[in-house]
Amino acid sequence: MILMIDKVDILGILIDRVDMGQALDRIEEFIKLDTSNLVVTPNAEMIIRATKDPKLREIINSAQLIVPDGAGVILAANLLGQPLSERVAGIDLVKELLAQANQKDYSFYFLGSAPGVANKAKEKVLKKWPKLTIIAHHGYLDRELEEQVIDEIKKEEIDILLVGMGVPLQEKWLATYLDQLDIPVGIGVGGTFDILAGNKKRAPEVIQGLNLEWLYRLLQEPKRLGRMTALPEFIYKVLHQRLK
């Protein structure tokens, strides 16, 4: 039986008060259970989107594990007087899971990104952790391909399904199919496959430590500028929540 974990309410999204070690322990417990468990990794942008998308908000809050991904989430928790111990970034969570699984014989399914990316990520990961079992498929699915992927996942008895389709598509896809796939753990991982494949670089640790990873990503991908408007909106709404 899984122990209940305290939560922090940030704009109606209930973030679990967990650090990386606790998140990994909880996922290991999920794998031992005969149920399907959704893991979500909200950052400020996802939380703002969820305030405007009731279905996404429902999916996030009904997930079995909701980790604080993003410096904005940590800042918000501090502003609300409910501090979180550390950021649990989705990419770091995935890397830790891969490292653990190399010793524990967990199987993965990488689903998402453009054709070729998930397979390239798989190849790079297997060079580092050769004991892993990984199946990969791109995320450009028509109905026929989607049915094939669902059949393959069911047949292979996967332990951890990573879906990189972007928010909110990946969360809604997992909410629709996870139970019928009979997989212990499903996680929406955004652009993680591009990073694992080496197509995109993670910010240096010093940049991460300064909580400026968002700026590093913006410089890499200027087209993200429009999405950055979520950050000041997020802080404004958190301050309003604090005043209330």
UniProtKB/TrEMBL annotation:
It is an enzyme of class 2 (transferase). InterPro entries: TagA_TarA, WecG_TagA_CpsF. Pathway: Cell wall biogenesis; teichoic acid biosynthesis. GO terms for biological process: cell wall organization; teichoic acid biosynthetic process. GO terms for molecular function: N-acetylglucosaminyldiphosphoundecaprenol N-acetyl-beta-D-mannosaminyltransferase activity. It catalyses: UDP-N-acetyl-alpha-D-mannosamine + N-acetyl-alpha-D-glucosaminyl-di-trans,octa-cis-undecaprenyl diphosphate = N-acetyl-beta-D-mannosaminyl-(1->4)-N-acetyl-alpha-D-glucosaminyl di-trans,octa-cis-undecaprenyl diphosphate + UDP + H(+). Signal peptide: none annotated. Its EC number is 2.4.1.187. It comes from the Bacteria. Keywords: Cell wall biogenesis/degradation, Glycosyltransferase, Teichoic acid biosynthesis, Transferase. Belongs to the glycosyltransferase 26 family. TagA/TarA subfamily. PANTHER family: PTHR34136, UDP-N-ACETYL-D-MANNOSAMINURONIC ACID TRANSFERASE. Catalyzes the conversion of GlcNAc-PP-undecaprenol into ManNAc-GlcNAc-PP-undecaprenol, the first committed lipid intermediate in the de novo synthesis of teichoic acid. This is N-acetylglucosaminyldiphosphoundecaprenol N-acetyl-beta-D-mannosaminyltransferase. It comes from Halobacteroides halobius (strain ATCC 35273 / DSM 5150 / MD-1).
